[in-house]
């Protein structure tokens, strides 16, 4: 199982996650939580977070949750994903919770929920489902 320091290293080795400002805040077996402060560069012309930002946050968070259940040195990589954008992601910060629904040796099914925070208000803005393949690093 990964600890929080390992997950922070996992995110730090992904330059795009670093550029977005995604920070892991908690991890446990089959679960990862992240957050990011929204900046003007993350927004659409409408003032909401870009769908690509929301999807990237959810994908990498679900991937970290999946990685937490991988054994034997394998790496979980996204093979397929679906993102449902439920409402505009408007706020100061995005929070994401990724969970493993079905672990496996070669395929893992995971989900993520993304919430927008505006002050004390927390609103569910997106849900992601993903199938991740477990591969051996080359």
Describe this structure in words.
The protein is of the alpha+beta class and 138 residues long. 23% of the residues lie in helices and 44% in strands. The protein has one domain: Thiol Ester Dehydrase, Chain A (Roll). It contains three helices and six strands; from the N terminus they run H-H-E-E-H-E-E-E-E. It starts with a helix and ends with a strand. Belongs to the thioesterase PaaI family. One of its GO terms (molecular function) is fatty acyl-CoA hydrolase activity.
SSE inventory with pairings:
Blueprint: H1 4-12, H2 15-20, E1 23-28, E2 31-37, H3 51-67, E3 75-85, E4 93-102, E5 107-118, E6 121-135
Antiparallel strand pairs: 1-2, 2-4, 3-6, 4-5, 5-6
Short description:
The chain has 138 residues and is of the alpha+beta class. The protein has a single domain (4-135), classed as Hotdog Thioesterase (Thiol Ester Dehydrase, Chain A). Helices cover 23% and strands 44% of the residues.
């Amino acid at each position: 199982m990964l600890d929080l320091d390992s997950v922070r290293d996992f995110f730090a080795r992904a330059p795009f996650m670093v550029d977005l400002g995604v920070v892991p805040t908690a991890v446990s077996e089959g679960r990862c939580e992240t957050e990011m402060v929204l900046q003007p560069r993350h927004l659409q012309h409408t003032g909401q977070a870009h769908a690509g930002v929301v999807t990237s946050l959810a994908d990498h968070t679900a991937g970290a949750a999946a990685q937490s259940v991988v054994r034997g040195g394998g790496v979980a990589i996204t093979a397929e994903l679906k993102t449902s954008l439920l409402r505009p992601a408007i706020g100061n910060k995005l929070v994401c919770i990724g969970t493993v629904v079905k672990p496996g040796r070669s395929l893992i099914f995971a989900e993520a929920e993304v919430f927008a925070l505006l002050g004390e208000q927390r609103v569910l803005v997106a849900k992601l489902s993903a199938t991740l393949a477990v591969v051996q690093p080359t």
